[in-house]
Amino acid sequence: MIDIHTHILPGLDDGPRSWAETLEMCRLAKEDGAEGLVATPHIRDGVYPNRRSDIVEKVNELREKIKGHIDINIFCGAEIHITPDIVDRIKRGEVPTINDKGYILLELPDHLVPPRIEDLLFQLKLERIIPIITHVERSHWIQREFQLIYRFVEMGALMQITAMSLTGGLGRTARRMAMKLVKLRLAHVIASDSHSRGLRPPGLSFALKIASSIVGEKEANAMVKDAPAKIINGSGIEIPVPERT
Ligand SMILES: [Fe+2]
């Protein structure tokens, strides 16, 4: 399994406070069966002004620290809060795509979908950058505007849900919505969005079991193994046709 959404680098965002905690998180992920982790610190103007160079530096530091101790691959990425100039920032090398292969984690505001989102998705498509919208099941807007998910998927976006939403650790609403997205084939990747060793630790295996019970093993594996591997390699993902509600 490869976890494409983790906050495992210390000092860049609201993730771990120390390298010791980072290493513990890597160990937990490995024990749970992960072969790779994408480090995706927040990039958010005025709050987490991280740049690609900061993230690459810390990823390299982490690779050095685990060498010979923890057998897990670490890749570079970011969770990018939506701004209208994402494409320019990527082109300037300020914002990384995952493993520099063209996929990005895109975070939308919780309450309101920005009115110009479709313009942005179109711009990304023209540049062959594939957005993966993060933890959609936890967004408030999804309760009122579920149909938007179909529209985003039509426009080439992928949907990521949080492992702990499926397993019930983030409340009943998040669980119900995560299960609905899986059932309707509107969830394409399951990731931990882990921030610490305690509150939301890494780990995908329990969520994989739950997803398997909804759509079967093959499709569930696609969400934690096949799709993440393609995201890392920059190859195309064939997504299932979503069911209509
Ligand atoms: Fe996150």
Task: Explain this structure.
The structure is a single chain. The protein has 245 residues and is an alpha/beta fold. It has one domain (2-233): Alpha-Beta Barrel (TIM Barrel). Helix content is 41%, strand content 14%. The chain has ten helices and nine strands. The protein has helices spanning 19-31, 52-66, 86-91, 117-126, 141-144, 147-154, 163-166, 172-183, 205-215, 217-233; strands at 2-6, 36-39, 42-43, 73-76, 79-81, 103-107, 130-133, 158-162, 189-191. The strands form two sheets. Strands 3-5-6-7-8-9 form a six-stranded parallel β-sheet. A three-stranded parallel β-sheet has the order 1-2-4, sandwiched between helices. The longest helix is centred in the C-terminal third of the chain and has 17 residues, at 217-233. The chain is globular. The structure holds fe (ii) ion. Fe (ii) ion binds at residues 5, 7, 79, 134, 193.
